[in-house]
């Protein structure tokens, strides 16, 4: 960890001295299993469902440009801000 001036901070009792993620360009989650993915504030450029292949994900406020989840299992996708207020069934036959 670092303090406000960017100096190295030693936390007593831990083995953590400094974690610098300022230059992270790619996050590899190819062996992860995502149990919940909330996309309400992110911009997803391409999402291939049913095969759970996320090609490119842009996360605002970070430098992450690509998240590889080619072998991940997506169980739930939360779209909490999306509301369906009307369903048009005028062309259907029962």
Provide key terms for this protein:
two-stranded parallel ribbon, 94 residues, mainly beta, elongated, single chain
Largest sheet: 2 strands, parallel
SS class: mainly beta
* Spatial strand sequence of the major β-sheet: 1-5
Radius of gyration: 20 Å
- How many strands appear in the DSSP assignment? 6
Return residue spans where pLDDT drops below 50 for at least 5 consecutive residues.
Answer: 44-54
Number of helices: 0
Q: State the end-to-end distance.
A: 63 Å
- Reading the helices and strands in chain order gives EEEEEE
How confident is the prediction overall: mean pLDDT? 55
* Share of helix, binned: under 10%
Shape type: elongated
Strand content: 15-25%
């Amino acid at each position: 960890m670092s303090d406000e001036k960017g100096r190295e901070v030693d936390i007593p009792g831990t083995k953590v001295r400094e974690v610098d993620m300022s230059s992270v360009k790619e996050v590899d989650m190819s062996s992860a299993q995502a149990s919940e993915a909330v996309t309400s504030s992110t911009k997803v450029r391409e999402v291939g469902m049913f095969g759970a292949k996320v090609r490119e994900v842009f996360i605002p406020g970070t430098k992450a440009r690509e998240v590889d989840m080619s072998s991940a299992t997506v169980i739930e996708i939360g779209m909490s801000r999306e509301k369906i207020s009307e369903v048009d069934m005028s062309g259907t036959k029962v």
